[in-house]
Amino acid sequence: MSQQEYDVVLDQVSKNFGNIVAVDNVSLKVRKGTFLTILGPSGCGKTTTLRLIGGFESPARGRIFIKGQDVTDIPPYKRETNLVFQDLALFPHMNVLNNIGFGLRMKSVSKRQVKEKVQEMLEMVELPNVTYRKTNQLSGGQRQRVALCRALIMEPAVLLLDEPLGALDAKIRKQMQTELKNLQMRLGRTFISVTHDQEEAMTMSDEIAIMNNGRIEQVGAPHSVYERPVSRFVANFLGDCNLIDVEIVESKPEQVVVREPRLGTFFFHPDRNWQNKDGQGHMSMMIRPENITIVQNHRNFENIIIGVIETLAFKGSTTEYVVKADSTEIKLQIQGRSQFRQGDHVSIAWKPEDCYLIP
Ligand code: ATP
To answer: Which of 44, 192, 200 to mutate to test the pocket of ligand 1 (most atoms within 8 A of CB)?
Structure first.
């Protein structure tokens, strides 16, 4: 694929503030029409990466391309990007019409045209009746929509969103996640968002880039980074998981056999994408809690551990257990109410395709 087919390309980009390396040799390609989320813990370099794409920071090294054009030395206002800031940065003394229409007015578009366009935008985000209200008279969710309209009205090729839903309470946040994704799909534009909330990233994104310490550790579709993480960091960051240190005893294309001295032998079915084809030595076996079941009949399972239920917690639709086997604690999440009690001896099992081996 040529660079023109990507809306954004970062080529070995680095940025430091004094001796803090905020972004460390990051390369990233974002296809046109993709909703990509940069996900990672506080301070990992997400916002700086976004600001580099928008032109609000200059890289110390590397090049940045937007729609195939090298924009590394081009200022923000000349780039085909628009950034929705974390704090939204709306003008509190101006009404909604003037906030959203501001950019177009600066480009000398007529008042009548601006008003029509603003009304169109407000209808798109289902906020038609707030045109003349001041932005400090709006709810958090409404302000968020106004900020989106203000950025989108300029028709940027790439919309950059810095923690777009950070200020909203949990319920509106969930609703806005779906709305934002629907909006992006309807417009068919490229959105790049930044968050530290893994559930938000999973809900909205076509692709997630997981960042740690200034570096991107993995980029992929939500299910692929969740099920096939390339590192312990990615596995842990994307939700609950069990990581058991194992040693490879046999490695064939269709099956890898591993061993943990006290827990036994386990089987893993690699897929085509598994990196460590001639895997040797020590690895971490990852099993998500929802992929483990409590079984009565051992015969149907290759991966079995016998242990004692240490804790169990009813969560409504699921029950969460911690089963202790030797000194290893294993987390399980099972649908419905429990038939078991604390202290019960149980056999737990998972399928070879439901675990993964991480270097
Ligand atoms: P958060 O989720 O907390 O917003 P982040 O992942 O977006 O964090 P960045 O804001 O990109 O992280 O910051 C990356 C690193 O660079 C941090 O160590 C931060 O303290 C540092 N940093 C960011 N901006 C500046 C600046 N203007 N001056 C000095 N250091 C900075």
So the answer is: 44
